[in-house]
Amino acid sequence: MAEKKTNTKAENNAGVQSNGPDASDEIKKEKTGAAADIQIKRELYDKKKELEAKDEELEFIKKELAAIKITKVGPTQVVESDALKLMEARINELSRQIVSGVRGEKTLFRPPTPLDLQDDSITFTSRAVFFVVGSYLDKNGLEQIPPHKLIIFTYQASDIRKEGKEDVIKNFSQFATNLKTEIAFLRSHPHYGITFSENTNEMMDEDTKDTQFKVRAANQLATLPPEAIFDRAKEYKIANWQGKNAEELRYLIVHKMAEEFKAEAKKLSEDILRRRILASSLINEKNSE
Fold first, then answer.
1. Which one of 82, 178, 194, 208 has the minimum C-beta count within 10 Å?
2. Can you name the residues that pair with 234 across neighbouring β-strands?
3. What gap in Å lies between CA 166 and CA 124, rounded to an integer?
4. What's the rounded Cα separation, in Å, for the pair 207 and 156?
């Protein structure tokens, strides 16, 4: 009788095996795969948050740099070195940390190769105590990232210049490179010739208030295709616009648009001043009654 029960159990086991893989195994595999996907997504999300936090810290550092004190020493100006060195150290550390950062599965930067090198070094100048060039949007609306690292302009000197009745402090920082990839990136930047340039004298003569208007114009033109640039050139009546390429016209249009923005700002300022004078006179009339 016991022997019969054993056979029946074996037959039942054989029957179960003949039905193919256990359904519970398939469920386990699906759960394992889903868990792995969730883990990957979580890691990418954490990395994204980490990069966003570093971007926020970078913006905070830029604001701190704007508040760095200037100490007068005779006819020249000297930036407080301890504060500046601290800022530079923090920026450099951020740059090293995000070299291995991830956007999806793509590394942000790549190491330079001998093919990237050229014999001559090019120096770029900015009208700032400290200046960092990150990414920008090109004419196709695609983000362009520095090829090898964050591009950091370090403080060089300051100068006092007489403009009218006021003394104006002009600071400048520089970035030198002999990497063709970095040179091409900077020359293609929509702010090239505006917030930084290869012409030091040109940058030192630049009015920082005018620069703000040019940056605003450059940002509006940055993602426009060549066809739209030619239309704008025709609209602004750029001389001999048919004989110039889109990038040459883009630069000329920036200056035309900046002049418009400056005129609008002046008109708005004068309007506000008139309203304040009118409001003040009305208040004085009421008080005199």
1. 82
2. none
3. 28
4. 19
